[in-house]
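Write out the 3D structure for:
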Amino acid sequence: MIEKNSEHLKHRRVTRRSFLAGAAVAAAGAGAAATMLAGCSPSTAKPQGAAGGKESGTSAGQPGFLTAPDPIDPASVTEELECDVCVVGLGLAGVCATRAAAEEGARVIALDKGEDLCFRSGEFGTFGSERIHKALGISQPATQEAVNELMKVMGNRPNALLLNYWIGHSGQDIDWYIQDVDYELLENDHQTPKGDKEMIILPERFPINENYDWRKENYPCFPGMVHLLPDHGPALRATFEAAKALGAEALFATRAQQLVKEGDRITGVYATNAEGAVIRVNASKAVVLTCGDMSSDHEMLEYYCPQAMQFASYFPNLDAESNPTNTGDGHKMALWAGAAMEAAPYAPMTHSLGTNSIGIDPYLMVNIKGVRFANEDVGAQELQNQIKRQPGQKAWQIFDSKWPEQLAVMPQCFGGVTHFVPDEQYDEYEHIINHFAGGYASLRSFQVEVDSGAIIEAQTIEELAEKTELPVDSLKSTIERYSELAAKGVDEDFCKVSTRLFPVQTPPFYAVNFGDSGILVLIGGIDVDENLHALSPDKEVVEGLYVAGNTQGGRFLVDYPVTVAGASHSMAMSFGRLAGRNAALSQ
């Protein structure tokens, strides 16, 4: 048994902003847009609960991954290992599942095809934490208020029982997740960390801006989300070490290939190690699949959600052969064993975030023809949805020199900026000004982005048009119309609230380019019940098989909701813990 200690875990400080900025310049497949489907639903029924779009891959009219490979010959096995619970995939969900199962007294063996634990960034959408929210006095919506808003954004398609569980348990789950870390809890979102702790916990947008009431927003963003800085690596490591202290074992550079099925029950996993030898892990209680998403498998991406093909996927976590880990391995193994994919349409996670100084604040936005095209007062995900429908899949955010005094009425949302910091207070606020999506800006940080070219500056509209390559007559006409509406206090064109409607009249003028986003993950997974059992196409439990994290269905559909910033991390934590516990307690 080869095990890599988690001390070798690297801090991959990949922020959502830096990831998407890189992806935007390499978004691929735009030519396929003409054949994209409106959703991800199939035109004909597919086998094994598949919910894909295009037909490709085999002569039978379905992609190759839906056809199960030949069963692994038991005679090829070089080693058999025994455990109660086998966890496949050691990202956030898998590490939490491993510890939770071990805490219930189960013998646990966890597998991962990479050489280390997998993670990125550190935003967690959580509710009711004793260590964070209650300690700081952060007020949040009730469980059902949050769930209802999420269901609205996602077309009422997710499993509300799963969302109820997550909102109701995410607070105690993050308390459990961080309990073994030496961390500093900041008292507000702009406090300067002392820097003597392994991890910093930043309460995002707290205290909440007095001008922001999520109940009055068309696209609300809930207060109380938290950021683990520099990322959640320290918490992941501590959770993994706690699992090992309870007897859990881990095999890295070990690729799960197929599930072992005896009768109607999943009883283990076939895997290959770094030397190519076949290992069989027998799991007397259950297998838990926490293998991540499928956005780096182009065949799966095209089949299940073809419109997502236009986005480039830059995934930082690699296997032992330096290939992306998010290739749908768990989905495939579950399908081959008789489980089903949830009903589509699946949710590509794609955001537009703008710059640190202005973010996605709802200033005037025009397409490359210089034409305003929508109400700008939407969330980061919804904004990208409109941009990708524009010519060239690009847009420009336009505003003038009055921007500092306008921040205070902007929405306190994911990617929004609502606080202006005078230069004399810069040092006091430097940490949060330079923090991704922190919500604070200053003239100093703004000038840095002007100097870098992230923000275009011009003294006249004509000059702005020249620098942005926008048609000058069209841009001038659009700005004149928008400024006229601002003077009236009524957006007759798109009905943006008047408090966020500002004329563009006072030079210098500014523009920020919003290009096509990258894709973080494609969220769509194996159908599960509220206990995280994998389900068959007939909604029957696949005995001995649990699923969590981005391999799991029922969480996000249609669109990824930025209503709860960091929801994906938080759900992976909560459902990973639940899956591990349930697997250990299963009969």
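The longest strand covers residues 77-88.
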